[in-house]
């Protein structure tokens, strides 16, 4: 499982990201949590075990590119489908 928390204004980006993850990792569920009280542009991607894989809070720039997150998940050991 991958958990994505995001600013309510970033729903379209969450959907794009979830689609990219599910396409590359067919057995991985993406659980999205819209955070209405979050700062503008907030985005956090966590592994199922709670490890933060990407967060705008860590000063890594803007919203994550879907392929960037796919690469992070591969590096974290998520099994990619072929």
Mean pLDDT: 89
β-strand number? 4
Low-confidence regions = none
The major β-sheet equals: 4 strands, mixed
Structural class: alpha+beta
Account of the 3D structure:
It is a single chain. The chain is an alpha+beta fold. 29% of the residues lie in helices and 26% in strands. It is built from two helices and four strands. It has helices spanning 11-24, 66-75; strands spanning 2-7, 30-35, 43-47, 52-55. A four-stranded mixed sheet has the order 2-1-3-4, with helices on one face. Strand 3 and strand 4 (52-55) form a beta hairpin. Helix 1 (11-24) packs across helix 2 (66-75). The longest helix has 14 residues, at 11-24. The radius of gyration is 12 Å and the shape is globular. The protein starts with a strand and ends in a 7-residue tail after the last helix. The model has no long low-confidence stretch (mean pLDDT 89).
